[in-house]
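thread: overnight batch results

M.L. [08:02]
morning all. the overnight job finished for the chain we discussed friday. pasting input first so we're all looking at the same thing
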Amino acid sequence: MKNVLLVDASPMFREFLKDKLGVEKISVTVAQGNRDAFIKTISTLPDLIILEMQNDLGELFEFLTKKHNDPNATRIPIIAAGPSIESQKTAKLAQFGVVKYFAKPIKFDVFFESIGYILKIGFSMDPTPCVLGIHRNGNIIFIEIAEGLNREKLSLLKYKLAEMIETENMESPKIVLMMTNLDLTFVDASNLELLLNNVLAAQKVQTKNVKVLSFSSFTHEMIKGHSEYNGIEVSTNLPHVLNSLIDSTSSINVPDLITEKILMQESTPDTSSIETRFYSDKGALQDDDESEALGNVLRVALVDDDKVTLKLLEQSFKSVGATCDIFDTGTKFLAGINKHKYNFVILDILMPGISGFDILMRLQNIRSDIPIIIYSQTTQREDVIQALSLGAKRYIAKTQKPDIVVQKVVELIHGKI
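M.L. [08:03]
and the structure it wrote out:
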């Protein structure tokens, strides 16, 4: 049996790895601290060491030096994970047997591919296309799932959610599962159960505080008929869901929450250990060469009756190498929507003839999963709420420059918002 030594792994990272490695019949030994790590290294002589690097590089190099100088341990390969570090430090780590360094948050498809290569085993990974994003606003956690239910990502969600609740000291977390782009059937039953069980497994999460946004009749029926999910509400109306989650004594206004905290949310660096977006999701998209790589995967439809706005948007997207198709009426867009596979649609609301609302309703009726970003002159709260309820991912006022629209697209691709 293969044996892996986990060194200084944080609780969520450790438990996830133990679960995943255990499925593959890999024995796991856990060590905490420099001395414990070295003792267990020479006593167990593991096939691989997985090390979560903390801030104290001096202590880390002390362990690496002792391991390197021991004739029995020197050849044991190491995979390390930690914060982003300079290339000189990465090169120094390589001198001590670190064969791969992963900056957090870790994309686990590549991570397990590296483990499998070292241990000469093949990890079973669910290939189901799935986009899973998670972010927090106050005590409400929004989990958005599109394309499909991937069991690897649903397993990651369990630990990502627990990590977020613990790190943010959330006393009464409330969960909104946004699955309006998923049309599930009975064949998805086990995956839907896995999703709900992993959400409820997080400490302090109660069924009464879990709301599901879905148009799937199967999702409604399964949750309603499952005793373990008693209290979970399934709805098609986001404002209703938010109203049900906000304490009646709170001064928070639902339209304010939608406009200021969901749609206008500023991105923040992800300092967690777990990434729910995989490397393969982006078609081998590289973070360090973002602008060049976007052109390989990004095709955008720009829909607006204002020719000046269209020109500015086109220039901004072309500056990052994206391909743009321009539509100056809603009619032309709907006629041409099937000619190409679009990664995003940038849509105005106020257009003569077929409005942005009309387009959102048409796309919702055909179960389109194309992400829509509204870029519009109107900032009326009712319009923002209606657009979001009809499936828009973000609402950006035209007081913001087109470069901000491009920035939000990039952030959505990288799972940062």
